Amino acid sequence: MEKIIIKTPEQIEGIRKSCKLAGQTLEYIAPFVKEGASTGLLDQKIEAFIRENGAIPATMGYGGFPKSCCISPNEVVCHGIPSEKTILKNGDILNIDVTTILNGFYGDTSKMFTIGEVSPAALDLIEVTKHSLDLGIQQVKPGNQFGNIGFAISKYVKSNGYSVVYEFCGHGVGIQFHEEPQIDHSSRRNSGPYMKPGMTFTIEPMINQGKPGTVVDKSDKWTARTVDKKLSAQFEHTILVTENGFEVLTDISEEY
Question: Is the separation of the CB atoms in 99 and 67 below 8 Å?
Answer without folding.
Answer: no
